[in-house]
Amino acid sequence: MRRDVFQAIADPTRREIIGLIAHKTLNLNAIAENFEMSRPAISQHIKILTECGLVEMKQQGRDRYCYIQFQKLAEVAQWIEQYRSFWTGKLDALALHLSKDQQTEQQ
Amino acid sequence: MENEPVIVERVYNAPIGKVWKALTDNNEIKQWYFQLADFKPEVGFKFEFTGGPDDGPQYLHLWEITEIVEGKKLAYTWRYDGYPGNSVVSWELFEQGDKTLLKLTHTGLESFANNGSDFAKTSFNGGWNYFVNDALKNYLEPAA
Question: Per the CB < 8 Å rule, is A79 touching B33?
Fold first, then answer.
């Protein structure tokens, strides 16, 4: 099965989990409290996030804490950036098109 | 995680009516956007475009107009035939004297995430190459 950042963010619950732990390291219970679904279901999502490399688990005393892996998150930003350059290119082309019109009218 | 839309804004040195025409008149759309068989600025109008890299897979892009505010706003869904996910592209125009501010917003991109990392790259590259290389080249090196 494919495990990469795109698999990680494809699910809305996993996106919310990333949002929670991006700001603050939390243990499993603290994360599960934010959701209506069962704790095992949340554990399963976190397992996938771990396999995708976005989350690292660390045992501290009796609790297991989830740490976000920011380098992996940057891959997501790069992916979105591709769309931005696509649109920037299109809007440049529109500027060129509009300026051509202007020149034609002035001639 | 925020599902951040892509927002690009640009001020054009052209009146709002002219920019609107460039967005909605198929003869003009062909000049800078995509080669579409037909285009009508009406809610529910569907159009499509097949594109991808010269040496790679081709993707059928499916669009359907969801909102028209005459002269001001055009929005359509953007998805791919045979792939999950749906996104929305909106074009909004704001009059600024004899200039026009265009705000382009592309939301829902995360819904394509499941299609893999190469998806955006391969489904868009054809367009980028054309616009970045050809359009920019023409601009920098006019035939005249």
Answer: no
Looking at chain B from residue 23 to 52, which residues have their Cβ under 8 Å from any Cβ of chain A? 28, 31-33
Using a CB-CB distance cutoff of 8 angstroms, which residues of chain A are in contact with residue B30? none
The predicted model scores a pTM of 0.66
The interface predicted TM-score of the complex, written ipTM, equals 0.70
Domain boundaries, chain A: 5-80
What is the fold, at CATH topology level, of the domain defined by A5-80? Arc Repressor Mutant, subunit A (1.10.10)
Q: What angle do CA B115, B123, B71 make, to 5 degrees?
A: 110
Helix axes A70-106, B16-24, angle to 10 degrees: 110
Read off the CATH number of the domain in which B100 is found: 3.30.530.20
Give the minimum alpha-carbon distance from A2 to chain B in angstroms, rounded to a whole number. 9
At B66-113, the pLDDT tens digits run 999 999 999 999 988 888 888 899 999 999 999 999 998 888 877 776
Backbone angles phi, psi at B87, to 5 degrees: -135, 170
Give A44 to chain B, closest Cα distance, Å: 18
